Amino acid sequence: YLYSDEHDIVHSDAVYPKVSVIIAAMNEESGIFRTIQTCVNSNYPNEIECIVVNDGSTDGTLFEMERAQAFFGDKVKIISFEKNKGKKEAMAAGVQLASNEIFVFVDSDSYLHVDAIKHITEHFIENEKIGAVAGNTRVENKNENLLTRMQSIQYAISFDIYKAAESVHSSVTCCPGCFSAYRREAIKPLIQNWREETFFGIKGTFGDDRSLTNFVLKNYWDVVYCERAKATTLVPAKFSVYWKQQLRLKKSWIREGILGGLFMWNRRSLLASLSFYIHFTFPFLGPILALYVLHFSITAHNPLIFLLFVFGFILIGFIFSLFVKLYRNADNFFIMPLFSILFVFVLIWQMPYAMLTLKKVHWGTR
């Protein structure tokens, strides 16, 4: 409720820094040209270079990149790996080639609004302490089916409640890979350490966005959310793909939450730190609480006890969705009760499995 993103200050064109957009792609031939196009055609007062990294694609992704380069000229630069190396390696290669002051990361299936880069960059202009800015991403295929509708309200809550609340304290804990921006000075010196980061001796191959944000926060930079910098992204339309994606995100949440917990207490404000630790414990306590309530309901021969627990989740979710509907005009807010039911009966149980399989670091989505 306290968050605002007004952009009232009018800046002269001369103060806008040059921007390097970095896009890592693997087997995205159907949409990569459009992604590049939305970046290059941005309404921005200064130079934009678009660096696209082909991460060992086996389809026509490289051809589409070359077609974009032929169409847009030297605004598009291509890096191509013969074999797949992973998104972290692709992003790091893009950073090494990038020459401008602001780095904007965009997923290969995300599409920027025409003024998105302009708005996200204004935060760096107005506050030199800001090291990273999370853009505002919505669901491109939101009305494809019931699953994508549920994800659309999930995205709205994630950005306009969680990231907005964290942004009040300049401590956004994840600048998502779909669309975020970083100050060159904030990440260029640490990109090698980020690229080689390990957890329990295993090199991480996913969760690159949350991991990079952790590095920025750890080095005393502020991280904020820009509601006006809008983009859309494609989300899984099949539950099997969505399940794998959510499992991967939970593994990232565990790993980066633990690493973030090691420094958050002495790097951020007291309220931001307290919020971080409380929020981090909820996904672990959720399955324990659900099992306890279910067991108590069975032994007491009273199913209403568990139903009341489920209703509590539905009520909280609906309050969240109603907020983003009233304040941000979010679509599909009425679907949230269904997502809450899905969460209680299905998704909440992913956390124990994610903990047990934490060392399995394959991508798990494709």
Give the topology, please.
Blueprint: E1 19-25, H1 32-40, E2 48-55, H2 61-72, E3 76-81, H3 87-97, E4 102-106, E5 110-112, H4 116-126, E6 130-139, H5 146-168, E7 179-183, H6 184-187, H7 191-195, E8 198-199, E9 202-203, H8 208-218, E10 222-233, H9 239-261, H10 264-267, H11 270-299, H12 303-328, H13 336-345, H14 350-356
Parallel strand pairs: 1-2, 1-4, 2-3, 6-10
Antiparallel strand pairs: 4-7, 5-10, 6-7, 8-9
Q: Residue ranges: pLDDT <50 for 5 or more in a row?
A: none
What gap, in angstroms, lies between the N and C termini?
Answer: 38 Å
Q: If you average the pLDDT, what whole number results? A: 93
Q: What is the number of beta strands?
A: 10
* Strands in their spatial order, largest beta sheet: 3-2-1-4-7-6-10-5
Number of helices, counting only DSSP H or I runs of 4 residues or more? 14
Secondary-structure element order, as H and E?
EHEHEHEEHEHEHHEEHEHHHHHH
- Most strands sheet: 8 strands, mixed
Helical/strand content category: alpha/beta
